[in-house]
Amino acid sequence: MLKKVDASHLKPGMYIHDLSCDWMTHPFVRNRFMLASDEEIRKMIDAGIHDVVIDCSKGLDVDHAPTLDETRQRTEEALVAIAAPPVIVTRTSLAEELKRAAVIRHQATGLVRTVMQDARLGKAIELDNVSPVVQNITESILRNPAALMGLLRIKTKDDYTFLHSVSVCTLLVAFCRSRGMDAHTTHQAGLGGLLHDTGKALVPDHILNKPGRLTDEEFAIVRKHPRDGYDILVKSPDVGPIALDITLHHHERRDASGYPDQQGEGAISELAQMAAIVDVYDAITADRCYHKGISAAEALRKIYEWSKFHFHPTYAQEFMRCVGIYPVGTMVMLESGRLAVVIAPHETNLLAPKVNVFFNTKHNGYIKPETVDLSRPLGFGGGDKIVRPESPHKWNVDPMRFISVG
């Protein structure tokens, strides 16, 4: 049986099934292991891990601790409540904006690659080249945020570092917009998102792309990248305080377990806290050489749970409403046994988006793509519901092929 246990109740002899944190938070080689000593428990607590999942069939139990299913049920109930408020209305169709978004994605990725190369060579960052790209991303978000955000869900392992920066910029701009921030602040936040990992240019490639857990020494090198990035960007007089703050503090946490300054609640700026949520969300949903990305829906559930300690709870909930419980581009299994890709959120219910169905799992074959509005009843273009997110790898399909019907 799997149980969710507070870290204060841990003892040697318990089997850790899940550390309940993003991969860059914990210093352990594995996610699943037998707790062997009090020193391991102290190391866990020092890393800001407040609760874990234990497997009672493989180690000691904890009386009265809730089961994993019970905690998940409570999370689901909370998410249903969060999903009630309205989401952003788009200005252009998804199909129309996807074409422009593909060009912007390509241009922005190339720019980040150049910025990283310049930083590695000790050159100053030319903001004249960066600002127009942020503006293009912002304008795409204003027209239809789902297009660019959907395209950026697809990342290759080789280009991850560059695409991650473009994703963080895009998501942060959308987040600012959904929270009603002014154009100047939104643009500066976008600059911070695009440049936030500039310090990784100084991390050796064999560490950055290591196909396994990092050693303590390697971990320490990676954790230097916010400070290194700040030191690089501060030399460019046109990089403002918002972008510098996001670069330096996007790994800080409310419980002061983050880095580089161990800032706690009240010390971390609003935009740095927003950037922290966006950064983790994009990182844990992407496939890397050392871990498999999780679905967007599962990532949002984890961020909700981690917001008890690491993230601002209100910001975390607002981010969920910004991207949707099932973001555009998510592949889902419907109750009817059909696979579908989410193409648009519903205006008032994030659990009932509009989808394109394209595959019947009962017959194990493709079907003619059809748009289904899951908020509508049977006979009115609906009559189905999402059972769970599905992995495209499991079915060997590219859901983005079916993002448009006709």
Automatic annotation (TrEMBL):
Database matches in CDD domains: HDc
Domain HD-GYP: 139-335
InterPro entries found in the cross-reference section: DUF3391 (IPR021812), HD/PDEase_dom (IPR003607), HD_GYP_dom (IPR037522)
Highest taxon in the source lineage: Bacteria
SMART domains in UniProt: HDc (SM00471)
UniProt name for this protein: DUF3391 domain-containing protein
